[in-house]
């Protein structure tokens, strides 16, 4: 039965270590541990050794016939026990030892026999003890001796046998480790280098100090129970751990990032973060950061088991990184830094406001305006525009239609607001100011004469005010608005005479707007005529009382009842017929009924108690204006409220100025300093002639008046430019030129007049000549005489100059003669109309003309049962109209020409679809539409022969 060393030491009252030493000396190696077991025979051997240990050598065989004093009966070995063959080699040379190990014969003892086979050292070839132990370990894992134990045995035996003094062993270098110590024969035999970082065991030199009795100082340390036997490394095992040794920085990272160790470091770091990402789930963004290798602050929270197989410096680097990120995460500093970066990126990417679903913008709207209003990057808007073929800069403006389109593309509702203009700032308060009741005073009525041409308006007014204007008018037709104020029985009455010709309808309507009472002049011999009816409608629209002057009752044979019947038919029931319209029978020639007419007008005025506030700044209306030599611009204005004074700063339409002087309209030489409510005056001081009907206001500051006027001019200029279209050569205007070259179908005109009102009247006449197949184009219409500039413009444009009541100056006349430009002079408007009509009719020729409308690109094709093929298009340019035709272009070739059958915008039928919008187009009798087809849409215009056809 086996007995442990410590148990036997206790039994023998020995120290465990001392017993182990005794075992070694007794020839029982490998018993350095207190837990080592001894067989009964070994115990017996130890006891025998102890009995005569001090007297006999341990190597001396025991005499079989003389049992030791303390010898106990040796039990038979149990079955299964192995009996080791102890080989006691002589100290071999290293090379010889290797050879001996290869040739060593290890004999197992058959436990069944219970016999012990012992190979005497003399008979056994010299073999290293460790080789024998290794051979034994394959069969006896329980008690296999380690290499160290074998070395111990060898050493102890060597010490026993070799007692010769060793100068090295006792010299000053005896305890130092030398190269030979760890690349000795034992190591060579195993083919393995010594393991760095582990204690180096000194191998005894051949022929060691065998002469010493207890060379314990030379013994290798006995492996403790905590040290497991070191297994022999195998090929598939993990390599030994690296020593903690200092490595150069370039190996670990930096520029030498491609070094194996650095690469390994990165791989390990990625593995760490990937592992953490896996554990924390997909929403964990830090893992992404780590995978991108953005330096420190990664991979926190891993257990020790997750650490990569890194050693030394690499491990410390990772630890520091994890620690840094740990600090970031724990303290929030890391998040703080990331937040700042994000904030920085956001602030750098866009300064737009948060996105809105509904925005309000002013027109014209720039890309920047819409971007800032909607909180959408301008680049996004520009991208949409680019897709539509518009390369827009951020400050480029968009019209209402395009802005709506972009907003729709962005999913934003847009409202258009009117900008707060300078006019709003300055004039709104003036317009909306209410006059205090105590400042209101009675004012003269403003009475306007309306009616058909030649019915006697001017004659009646002349009769009332006691002058004769009719005889001075060209052709007896009123060309200008007149306004006079007279006194009757201490009360003032203001009269406005409007031109009776129909071309002045618009001016007449303006006259009615400033009118308190309308006098409808009807010639008793003519009755109600077309222009009479028109005057009635304007008077009614102005919601002013109407008094009918039934004129020319002096003409013999007239029937006043017929005229009254006509009036009744037009809604003006005479009072003598039971209605509420006063009809005064009168004659401008004989003066009959004139007092009655005046009395009626004053009575009506009294009934209405017209009042105004003369204590405020003036505001009123410009009736007409003209350029007069020696005076500059003379504007006939009527004050509606307040008092206009010389020196006031006035803005009127796009003109402005300080009131330089005012003159009475009835007596033009009479200057007046101030004009109260309802007073007409001729005003001097405006820079340009204002248009008829423009309102004037008095402002505190002349600079404000100038700025407002200039703003209005700029606006007018833009509107004019916008309406004139392109000026450069296109197919469109080239076609016009060709037309002009062959047979002039567009007649360019330059119009000059003495007053602005005449210009408007003449242009109104032009609209009557406006025929779909004929163009009548006014290049210039302005007040004043014909100049050299006008002639040059006419020469460049093949235009005719129409001079109404004005003449060309001498230089202009000479230049026109030299260039062949025609200047036609007129003093009666209808003469202009007649001449133009004849000229245009002479140009006409029957033909058809195509007018290009727009282009649409087929983006998608829909086949709808019972309807056919509908092309989903986007309008690239111009406009697509429903009643037009389309040329189908495929691969730059016209493959057909078909009428447009249906045109739809979304689900609704559309009359037209403009540029930038999508629409559905179905062509008549053509279903082979394909994506990418281009529709060139046009319409055919037919030119008639005459205006009367
Ligand atoms: N017999 C007669 N003739 C009149 C009377 N009133 C005007 N006339 C004549 O009618 C013609 C036209 O008179 P106007 O006063 O110019 O008529 P009007 O309505 O002002 O005409 P326009 O200025 O063209 O709008 C003139 O020849 C007048 O002499 C009248 O009461 N009796």
Automatic annotation (TrEMBL):
GO cellular component terms attached to this protein's record: cytosol
Low complexity biased stretches: 116-145
Name this polypeptide is given: Translation initiation factor IF-2
Annotated ranges, domain Tr-type G: 442-615
CDD domains listed in its UniProt record: IF2_eIF5B, IF2_mtIF2_II, mtIF2_IVc
Signal peptide: none
Basic residues composition-biased segments: 334-345
Residues that hold GTP according to the record: 451-458, 497-501, 551-554
Keyword Nucleotide-binding: yes
Job description of the protein: One of the essential components for the initiation of protein synthesis. Protects formylmethionyl-tRNA from spontaneous hydrolysis and promotes its binding to the 30S ribosomal subunits. Also involved in the hydrolysis of GTP during the formation of the 70S ribosomal complex.
């Amino acid at each position: 039965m086996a007995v442990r060393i410590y148990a036997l030491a206790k039994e023998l009252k020995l120290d465990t270590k001392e017993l182990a030493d005794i075992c070694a000396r007794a020839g029982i190696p490998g018993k350095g541990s207190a837990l080592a077991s001894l067989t009964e025979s070994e115990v017996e051997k130890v006891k025998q050794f102890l009995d005569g240990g001090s007297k006999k050598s341990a190597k001396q065989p025991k005499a079989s016939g003389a049992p030791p004093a303390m010898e106990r009966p040796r039990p038979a070995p149990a079955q299964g026990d192995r009996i080791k063959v102890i080989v006691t080699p002589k100290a071999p040379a290293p090379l010889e030892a290797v050879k001996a190990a290869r040739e060593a014969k290890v004999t197992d003892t058959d436990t069944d026999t219970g016999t012990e086979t012992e190979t005497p050292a003399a008979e056994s070839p010299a073999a290293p003890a460790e080789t024998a132990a290794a051979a034994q370990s394959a069969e006896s894992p329980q008690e296999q001796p380690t290499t160290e134990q074998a070395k111990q045995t060898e050493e102890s035996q060597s010490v026993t046998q070799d007692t010769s003094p060793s100068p090295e062993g006792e010299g000053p270098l005896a305890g130092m480790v030398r190269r030979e110590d760890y690349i000795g024969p034992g190591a060579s035999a195993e083919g393995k280098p010594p393991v760095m970082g582990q204690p180096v065991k000194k191998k005894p030199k051949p022929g060691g100090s065998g002469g010493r009795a207890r060379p314990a100082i030379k013994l290798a340390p006995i492996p403790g129970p905590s040290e497991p036997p070191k297994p022999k490394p195998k090929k598939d095992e993990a390599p030994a751990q690296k020593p903690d040794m200092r490595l150069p920085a370039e190996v670990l990272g930096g520029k030498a990032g491609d070094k194996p160790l650095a690469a390994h470091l990165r791989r390990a770091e990625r593995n760490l973060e990937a592992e953490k990402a896996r554990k924390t789930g997909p929403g964990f963004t830090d893992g992404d950061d780590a995978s991108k290798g953005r330096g420190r602050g990664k991979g926190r929270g891993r257990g020790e088991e997750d650490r990569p197989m890194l050693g030394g410096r690499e491990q410390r680097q990772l630890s520091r990184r994890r620690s840094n990120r740990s600090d970031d995460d724990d303290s929030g500093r890391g998040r703080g830094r990331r937040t700042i970066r994000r904030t920085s990126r956001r602030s750098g990417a866009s300064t737009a406001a948060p996105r809105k679903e509904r925005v309000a913008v002013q027109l014209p709207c720039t890309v920047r305006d819409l971007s800032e209003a909607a909180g959408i990057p301008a680049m996004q808007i520009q991208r949409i525009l680019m897709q539509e073929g518009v390369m827009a800069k951020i400050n480029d403006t968009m019209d209402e239609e395009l802005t709506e389109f972009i907003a729709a593309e962005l999913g934003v509702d847009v409202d258009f607001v009117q900008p707060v203009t300078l006019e709003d700032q300055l004039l709104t308060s003036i317009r909306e100011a209410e006059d205090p009741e105590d400042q209101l005073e009675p004012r003269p009525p403003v009475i306007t004469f309306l009616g058909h041409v030649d019915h006697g308006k001017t004659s009646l007014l002349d009769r009332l005010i006691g002058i004769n204007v009719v005889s001075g008018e060209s052709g007896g037709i009123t060309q200008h608005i007149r306004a006079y104020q007279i006194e009757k029985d201490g009360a003032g009455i203001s009269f406005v005479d409007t031109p009776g010709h129909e071309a002045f309808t618009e001016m007449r309507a303006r006259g009615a707007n400033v009118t308190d009472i309308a006098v409808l002049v009807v010639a008793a011999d003519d009755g109600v005529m077309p222009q009479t009816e028109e005057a009635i409608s304007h008077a009614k629209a102005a919601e002013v009382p109407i008094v009918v002057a039934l004129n020319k009752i002096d003409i013999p044979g007239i029937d006043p009842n017929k005229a009254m019947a006509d009036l009744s038919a037009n809604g003006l029931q005479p009072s003598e017929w039971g209605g509420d319209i006063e009809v005064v029978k009168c004659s401008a020639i004989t003066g009959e009924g004139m007092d009655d007419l005046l009395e009626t007008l004053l009575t009506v005025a009294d009934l209405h108690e017209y009042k105004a506030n003369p204590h405020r700044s003036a505001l009123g209306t410009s009736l007409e204006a003209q350029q007069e030599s020696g005076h500059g611009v003379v504007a006939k204005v009527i004050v509606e409220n307040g008092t206009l004074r010389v020196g006031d700063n006035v803005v009127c339409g796009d003109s402005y100025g300080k009131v330089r002087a005012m003159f009475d309209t009835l007596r033009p030489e009479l200057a007046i300093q101030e004009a109260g409510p309802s007073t007409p005056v001729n005003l001097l001081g405006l820079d340009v002639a204002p248009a008829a009907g423009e309102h004037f206001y008095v402002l505190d500051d002349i600079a404000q008046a100038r700025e407002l006027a200039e703003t209005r001019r700029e606006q007018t200029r833009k509107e004019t430019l916008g309406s004139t279209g392109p000026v450069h050569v296109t197919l469109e205007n080239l076609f016009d030129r060709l037309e002009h070259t062959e047979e002039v179908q567009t007649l360019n005109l330059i119009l000059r007049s003495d007053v602005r009102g005449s210009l408007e009247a003449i242009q109104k006449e032009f609209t009557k000549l406006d025929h779909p197949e004929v163009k009548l184009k006014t290049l210039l219409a302005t007040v004043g005489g014909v100049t050299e500039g006008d002639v040059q413009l006419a020469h460049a444009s093949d235009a005719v100059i129409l001079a109404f009541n004005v003449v060309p100056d001498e230089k202009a006349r000479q230049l026109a003669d030299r260039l062949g430009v025609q200047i036609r002079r007129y003093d009666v408007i209808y003469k202009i109309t007649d001449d133009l009509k004849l000229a245009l009719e002479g140009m006409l020729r029957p033909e058809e003309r195509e007018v290009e409308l727009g282009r649409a690109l087929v983006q998608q094709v829909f086949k709808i049962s019972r309807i056919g093929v509908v092309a989903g298009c986007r309008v690239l340019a111009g406009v697509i109209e429903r009643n037009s035709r389309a040329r189908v272009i495929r691969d730059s070739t016209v493959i057909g020409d078909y009428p447009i059958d249906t045109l739809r915008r979304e689900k609704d039928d559309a009359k037209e679809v403009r540029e930038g919008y999508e629409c559905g187009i179905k062509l008549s009798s053509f279903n082979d539409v394909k994506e990418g087809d281009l529709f060139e849409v046009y319409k055919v215009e037919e030119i008639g022969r005459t205006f009367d056809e």
